[in-house]
Amino acid sequence: MKKICVLGSFDEKSAFDGQTIKTLEIVNSLCKKYGDDRVMKISYHNIKNSKLKLLSAVYRGFSLCENVVIISRHASIGTLVKICTLINRFFKRPIYQIMIGGLLPDAVKEKPSLKNVLKKLNYVFVESEVQKSNLEIQGVSNAVCMPNFKDMRLYTEAELKKDFTKPYPLVFMSRVTEVKGIGELIEAVREINRNEVKFTLDIYGMIDEDYSDTFSKLKSEFPEYIRYCGICEPHKTSEVLHNYFLHVLPTRNPTEGQPGSVIDAFYAGVPTLCAVWTYSADMIPEGVCGESFPKGDYEKMKQMLLAYYDNPDRVYSMQEGALKEAEKYSPEAIMNILYEKADDFR
């Protein structure tokens, strides 16, 4: 019998999507510790639209494995997780739910019946202490904080770059989609550079299908100082980000939890300018490793960028703080949270 069954997104087409990256990081860590032959992977993405295939795969996972780990967004609680708890009436396996994104507390508030499903799990791992507290207030007592993480190069203070020259290089590294604010960032950089090129902007990330036509039009009108650089290999992100003055994330995504690109920037020693989201203060202490502006206030974002241009030391002063924050997201430390709660999957 295998030790662990992992239900999650293993879709190769989405290998650069945050959900898939997090799922693969966790699975790779489990395989490294327990061996590939002891970990069974079931791709929920490939079977979620077929109830028969879903039931068959989940039943097989419970019958062949001693422990079950589910890695998913909040939307799966009413389907995948509910099916798992029903099947588990026969098998009595430990079930550990690892959440992606930040909407679970809101989902429970909107649909209190979800608490009955969550209470049947051994633990529910969420990405921040704020999410954990919000769930506890609503009566979910088995929530545990387990931040996002990724295995990549961690830079040292001696390697920090404090000699960037004008125009200062900005970077966006996330899904290229409307809710991430990329269109507004492009427009802001163009406006700032109207009379003089103060910043360059490089864009990395998978382009959402729904945004492909819009982005293609934007790209066709890019000036020389804005480039789309394609998709960055997940374990090389800190090495790419290290070459930039500032990481910018103007997101207005309602499901934002702990964006992987912010952690990548921490590892690179690069501060982040971001729009405020529900859990941003929990992740980016203001003025320590980055700064924020009100969500949707792109005029404020422009003002802050101009302030950085006039006083780059304001950005340089947050580089050490970014590296310090990176220590909280080491793969070993984060996975130990899971191992401890799961009693090492005995």
Question: What does this molecule look like?
Answer:
The chain has 346 residues and is of the alpha/beta class. 42% of the residues lie in helices and 17% in strands. The protein contains 16 helices and twelve strands. The chain has helices at residues 18-34, 44-47, 51-64, 77-91, 104-110, 114-118, 129-137, 182-192, 212-220, 237-241, 260-268, 280-283, 298-310, 313-316, 319-326, 331-341; strands at 2-8, 39-43, 65-72, 95-99, 123-126, 143-145, 168-173, 199-204, 226-228, 246-249, 272-275, 290-293. The protein has a six-stranded parallel sheet, with helices on both faces. Helix 3 (51-64) packs across helix 4 (77-91), helix 8 packs across helix 13 and helix 11 packs across helix 15 (319-326). 41% of the residues are buried.
Provide a short characterization of the protein structure.
It contains 16 helices and twelve strands. By secondary structure, the chain is α/β, with parallel strands linked by helices.
The SS-based structural class is: alpha/beta
Number of strands: 12
What ranges have pLDDT less than 50 throughout 5 or more consecutive residues? Answer: none
Q: Total number of helical segments?
A: 16
Q: Assign a percent range to the helix content.
A: 40-55%
Placed side by side, the strands forming the largest sheet appear as: 2-1-3-4-5-6
Identify the overall geometry.
elongated
Spell out the helices and strands N to C.
EHEHHEHEHHEHEEHEHEHEHEHEHHHH
Largest sheet: 6 strands, parallel
Beta-strand content bin: 15-25%
Average pLDDT number: 93
Tell me the span between the first and last alpha carbons.
13 Å
| Rg calc | 21 Å
